[in-house]
Amino acid sequence: MNPVNMFTVFRNELQSKRGGLFLNVIEKVQLYLDQYNIGLKIIEFEESTSTCELAAAALGVEVGQIAKTLLFLADENPVLVVASGDNKIKSGKLKRLLGASRVRMADPDTVQRVTGYTVGGVCPLALAEDIPVLLDDSMYRFPVVYAAAGTPHSALPVTMEQLEIVTGGKWADLV
User: Fold this and answer.
1) CA distances from 172 to 81, 93, 127 (A)
2) Strands, DSSP E only, in 41-169?
3) Phi, psi angles (nearest 5°) of residue 84
4) Which stretches of the chain score pLDDT less than 70?
């Protein structure tokens, strides 16, 4: 076996061991969810779920049932917002709620650094940094919503109660 293949086998073995040095993103998120013991399981897809529309098509649900996760900077302080995929966050409402003078979307590098996930697969939990999470009331229209689970090929079905528990988020009217 050549060194590249040996490294791949070794890395894969390490990644598959819970508590090992390396966990792939899905394993990391699932391990985080398992600590709550509420039965949440990640769904993985071959097709892309990197946009609300693609995720809804892969799952066979309405776009509104996709819980999009967006990182904003409020006076340069990161805040994560989770909302229905068919709604637009109103920056004025976010500014008032946070008492900020300026609110803007974070760039992809900041999203990666703060959340630990790349754009298109941002998961609202198991974040790289401890930041506030806001959950938009618009998701209450559905008994279950689907959040990204850390990759652009995954989804996590959750009820509103479960979402609040695993994110530690606070409910707000942001649309």
Assistant:
1) 10, 9, 20
2) 43-44, 66-74, 77-84, 103-105, 133-136, 145-147, 154-158
3) -60, 140
4) 1-21
For residue 171, give the nearest of 129, 125, 124, 138 by alpha carbon: 138
Cα–Cα distance measured from residue 102 to residue 109, given in angstroms and rounded to the nearest whole number:
20
The H or E element containing residue 108 is helix 108-115
Q: Are 6 and 12 in contact (CB under 8 A)?
A: no
For the CA atoms of 71, 74, 76, 80, the dihedral, rounded to the nearest 10 degrees, stands at: -20
DSSP state of 117: S
| pLDDT computed for residue 21 by the predictor | 56
pLDDT in tens, 64-114: 999 999 999 999 999 999 999 999 999 999 999 999 999 999 999 999 999
- Core vs surface per residue 67-91: b (16+ CB within 10 A) or e: bbbbbbbbeeebbbbbbbbbbebeb
**Cα separation values, 165 from 3, 34, 39, 102, 125, Å:** 44, 12, 13, 29, 10
Taking the CB of residue 145, how many other CB atoms lie within 10 A of it? Answer: 28
Query: Which tokens in the block code for residue 111?
Result: 């999203």
Strand partners of residue 78: 73
- CB within 8 A of 32, min separation 6: which ones? 125, 126, 166
